[in-house]
Amino acid sequence: MDLFLHYLRMPYLLDGVGYTLLITVLGLLGGLVMGVVLAAMQLSRFRTLAIMARAYSIIFRGTPLILQMVFCYNALPMIGIKLSAITAAGLALALNEAPFIAEILRSNVIGVDRGQVSAGQALGMTPAAIMRRVIAPQAIRSMVPALGNESVSALKNSSLASVVAVQELTLRSTQLASATFDFFSIFFASGLMYLVLTGAIAVIQIVVEMLLDLDRPPPKEQLARFLRALLPGRGTPAPLAPVTPPDVAAEILDEIATDPLPPPSPRSGPIDRAARARRLAGNNAAVEVKQLRKSYGSQNVLDGIDLTVRAGEIVALLGPSGSGKSTLLRCINRLEGWQDGTIRVGGRFLGSDEDGRPLSPRVTAQMRASVGVGMVFQQFNLFGHLTARENIAGPLRWVQGLSRLDADRRAQELLDRVGLAHRADALPRHLSGGQQQRVAIARAVAPGPAVLLLDEPTSALDPELVGEVLEVIRRLAVEEGLAMIISTHQLRFAGEVADRIVFLAEGTVIEQGPAEQILRAPSHPLTARFLSTMNAE
Fold first, then answer.
1. Please, what is the average pLDDT of the chain?
2. Average pLDDT value for residue range 12-35
3. Are 212 and 145 in contact (CB under 8 A)?
4. What is the reported pLDDT for 235?
5. Which residues, 6 or more positions from 95, have their beta carbon under 8 angstroms from its beta carbon?
6. How far is CA 252 from the centre of its chain?
7. pTM
8. Torsion angle, CA of 174/179/182/183, rounded to 10 degrees?
9. Would you say 470 and 498 are in contact if contact means Cβ atoms under 8 Å apart?
């Protein structure tokens, strides 16, 4: 035992630990930088870059690290690049780690829900802003365990640096054992040193995961829990500040409950639809769609759509599943491209110049923000790492340039209007479906858009939650005066809110007209059959 402890303190082996750490740090830092580049190349829109990155990954993942170290130390000098043993070993480890780290980064980036990317685009966020504000924060949280595992592998792989005579821990242990013939004690001490190093990496990983945990209690609550654990049976020590302990049962009940909405704004009697129609007819066109055609391969999704929506007009899109309603909305917001036809929003070609040439994603995002097109999705598409308030206030800061104070004030005002002021600090996963959709509607309305697109806003909700979301939309229609295009199957709601109904089937407009007329006496057999089927359900 004394001899074993002697080896643990021996400077000769401790120096080897230093070389091991140096090579590992060089390899991981270099591998991280190169991995980010490789991942960006594979995620790029440019196919050539993606092919080059994939070829690099195949080569360096398919050859042994020991050969790569020999190549960096012995082959590079033949072309005039002479490296020290430590530099060559660090370079080889970095070249080897890069493709593995790149795959970790890439897999976690593409693992972020694509709906959140669409939501960021609809809010006018540039690709860089979406990556920095939406994708990266969520990807980093999920990639920490894999990066921790890769760090441990890199530390153990550093032992292969002995092949180029780097005096790291394994080589020094081998040399010492060859001189003393005390193999067991020396390698046991060496193994314990490796265990301490890998254990330190594990501790760092755990700390980072705790710091990035969105559900982690605030520091004061953590301290209170720690003190209670230290003093079992002696009462609960007074917390530093009033802390409300989490009530799981109450949380669940709150999630499934229907939050009361604020009282509606007073209205002066029923709407005179004829007068409203005459007034809307004099407004400028908010959206103009002409001969829009879109197909996926040989399947026509939109086949010559013509649609004009006036400022302040509310249009309901009806039609069976697959009729092209969602695709039409995504085309209007330029989340989808198309083969033929034109779309103007606010008199401008969104996402293309006057000659029809597509603009870059960055310029298109800026146009969305300046034109003012909001969108509410079927699946809510809230940013999972942000609270309800931050989901609304964040885009106002990043896109509209509001200060944090003004953005938070606007977010709190809208949350109050949709009856969720008390849930401002809740993450999306702690909200019910109806609550999430109400936050999504508030987020879409926050920048003050001229046009609001709603894509089946209640289709992903349980029946008991549909009413609360429809009531929020009804309020917006009355209070905001936005031009709205709503894809829905809620016939009663369409009749109450919409000025006009447009019925689509197989990518074409079959029939359109005043909401009451279409719902009461449709002229086309397909419309009549659809309404009959929906009323029978």
1. 87
2. 94
3. no
4. 47
5. 30, 31, 34, 60, 68, 72
6. 25
7. 0.84
8. 20
9. no
Distance CA(487)–CA(332), nearest Å, equals 13
* Radius of gyration in angstroms for the set of CA atoms belonging to the chain, rounded to a whole number: 31
Which of 482, 512, 476 lies closest to 317 in space, CA to CA?
A: 512
What angle in degrees, to the nearest 10, is found between the helix axes of 85-111 and 47-62? 130
- Rounded distance, CA 440 to CA 119, Å? 9
Does position 241 have pLDDT exceeding 60, yes or no?
Answer: no
- Closest residue by Cα to residue 30 from 38, 18, 19: 38
**What length is written for the chain?**
537
Nearest to 456 by CA among 331, 345, 325: 325
Q: How are beta strands 299-310 and 314-318 bridged, if at all?
A: unpaired
Q: What six digits make up the tokens of 196?
A: 């301490």
Other residues' Cβ atoms within 10 Å of the Cβ of residue 171: 19
Which SS3 state, helix, strand or coil, does residue 447 take?
coil
Q: Which one has a higher pLDDT value, 238 or 333?
A: 333
Q: What is the DSSP string of 387-453?
A: -HHHHHHHHHHHTT---HHHHHHHHHHHHHHTT-GGGTT--GGGS-HHHHHHHHHHHHHTT--SEEE
Ramachandran region of residue 46, left (φ > 0), alpha (ψ -120 to 50) or beta? beta
Owner of token pair 């309020």: 475
Q: Which CATH architecture has domain 273-536?
A: 3-Layer(aba) Sandwich (3.40)
* Run of H or E residues at 376: strand 373-376
Using one digit for the tens of pLDDT, what is the confidence trace for 128-183? 999 999 999 999 999 999 999 999 999 999 999 999 888 888 888 888 888 888 88
Helix (H) or strand (E) run with residue 38 in it: helix 11-43
In angstroms, rounded to a whole number, what is the distance separating the alpha carbons of residues 170 and 93? Answer: 16
Beta bridge partners of 512: 502
Of 221-225, 263-267, 327-331, highest mean pLDDT = 327-331
The greatest distance separating any two alpha carbons of the chain, rounded to the nearest whole angstrom, comes to 103
Q: What is the mean pLDDT of residues 303-326?
A: 92
| Domain-wise residue ranges, the chain | 2-212, 273-536
443-471: b or e for each residue (b if 16 or more CB lie within 10 Å)?
bbbbbebbbbbbbbbbeebeeebbebbbb
Question: CATH assignment of 2-212?
Answer: 1.10.3720.10
* Side-chain-facing half-sphere of 385: CA atoms under 13 Å: 17
Question: Residue 475: which residues within 8 A CB-CB, separation 6 or more?
Answer: 261, 264, 265, 417
250-300 tens-digit pLDDT: 554 454 455 666 665 554 456 677 888 888 888 889 999 999 999 988 888
Q: What is the pLDDT of residues 194-206, one digit of tens each?
A: 999 999 999 999 9
- H-run or E-run covering 512: strand 508-514
Half-sphere exposure of 380 (CA within 13 A, CB side): 20
Tell me: pLDDT of 351 over 60: yes
Least confident of 109-113, 190-194, 269-273: 269-273
Query: Which residue's entry shows tokens 């254990």?
Result: 199
At which residue do the structure tokens 């829009």 appear?
Answer: 292
Per-residue pLDDT at 229:
66
**Residue whose C-alpha is closest to residue 436's, from 37, 194, 113:** 113
